[in-house]
Design goal:
about 35% strand; 9 helices; elongated; alpha+beta; OB fold (Dihydrolipoamide Acetyltransferase, E2P)
Length: about 375
């Protein structure tokens, strides 16, 4: 195991695309870090640079005390799993798992012990004598994960290895990866586009967009205190609602005003934003902070809105409503459990101002 350090790492492709731009990050020895972002954000390129499959345009990569930029992949002591399990079709599962250990010329007894151990932990022991063509896609991906984990490399790299699997199997393998990491903490970079997967697996989350780091923090901090509008919109399901508006000081209070919506701000929130009174601003409100009020009497208290329910989406015991306000804005709100609302009718919803976020204008506007 080893610390993994990136210093001002950049990668430009001949086409002119800059995949990574001044990427700097310290991954502690044994830390599990998840890099999340949309397609084209530079996630996979980052892993390929660590593995030595691509060469950096600028900056340095350190594994432990060594700069590895110019080292061949086989000398970096990293193990990598891809989206598609790259197994040797002519070798059975046992031989695929043992292959990286044989390359390192480990004793046969140690190889057998490691293979049996990881096969048991991944529940693929009954498959050891089968060829890849004779097992399912999910089982092949388990073998691919096992081939990474059995190496006990200094650094493990995972490039969306669960992306093409069914949800029950994904959840099972996520749990398995966490248990294996707790048993033997290995410096790990795990790449995904799935923000829920990132929040579940990571000790720290790196949110990446257009090759730049947007925020690095533990999962709950990323969710509760997004650094900018991009992070706020990318992390969370359903996505955060955004309202363009202004902050106005009236009647001795600070108000957020956006179209037909007027919400009074109180306490520390008001104190923090008071100096920005009169300025345009973007308000972010998670669907969980907009709840069905249940009574028309709630209208007029300053924290309520009325809207026409256009669609109700059932997510198990949670129901989210897509509502349209009088001025044409669309919001997602959390409804009462196990309850749908009649569509195309007006309903009242309550907004919790303490759960509102505020950002500068622009797609990457910083949080206030």
């Amino acid at each position: 195991m080893a610390k993994l350090v990136f210093e001002n790492l950049s990668k430009n492709f001949p086409s002119g695309v800059r995949a990574l731009d001044q990427f700097s990050l310290d991954v502690a020895d044994g830390e599990f870090v998840v890099v999340v972002g949309p397609s084209g954000s530079g996630k996979s390129t980052l892993l390929r640079l660590v593995a030595g499959l691509e060469q950096a345009t600028a900056g340095t990569i350190r594994i432990g005390d060594r700069v590895v930029n110019n080292l061949a992949p086989r000398h970096r002591d990293v193990a990598m799993a891809f989206q598609n399990p790259a197994l040797y079709p002519h070798l059975n599962v046992r031989e695929n798992l043992a292959f990286p250990l044989r390359l390192r010329k480990l004793p046969r007894a140690e190889i057998d012990t490691r293979v049996r151990s990881i096969a048991g932990q991944l529940s693929i022991a009954p498959l050891l004598d089968r060829k890849p063509a004779a097992i399912s896609g999910g089982e092949r991906q388990r073998v691919a994960l096992g081939r990474v984990l059995v190496r006990e490399a200094r650094c493990n790299l995972f490039d969306e290895p669960l992306a093409h699997l069914d949800r029950p199997l994904v959840e099972q393998l996520q749990t398995c990866l966490l248990e294996l990491h707790r048993g033997r903490p290995t410096t790990t970079l795990f790449v995904t586009h799935d923000q829920q997967e990132a929040l579940m697996l990571a000790q720290r989350v790196v949110v990446l967009a257009e090759g730049r780091i947007q925020q690095v923090a533990p999962p709950l901090e990323i969710y509760d205190h997004p650094a900018n509008r991009f992070v706020a919109g990318f992390i969370g399901s359903p996505a955060m609602n955004f309202l363009d508006g202004r902050l106005l000081a009236e009647e001795g209070r600070l108000w957020f005003v956006g179209g037909e919506i007027r919400i009074p701000l109180d306490g520390l929130q008001s104190e923090r934003l008071h100096k920005r009174a009169g300025s345009p601003i973007v308000a972010g409100i998670r669907p969980q902070a907009i709840r069905e009020a249940g009574s028309p009497d709630a209208v007029g208290d300053g924290h309520s809105i009325t809207g026409i329910v256009r669609l109700s989406e059932v997510q198990g015991d949670r129901v989210f409503h897509r509502i349209e306000t009088a001025d044409g804005q669309t919001l997602i709100a959390l409804g009462a459990a196990h309850t749908t609302l009649p569509p195309n009718r007006e309903h009242v919803f309550q907004i919790d101002p303490q759960q509102m976020h505020f950002f500068e204008l622009g797609s990457y506007g910083q949080a206030y």
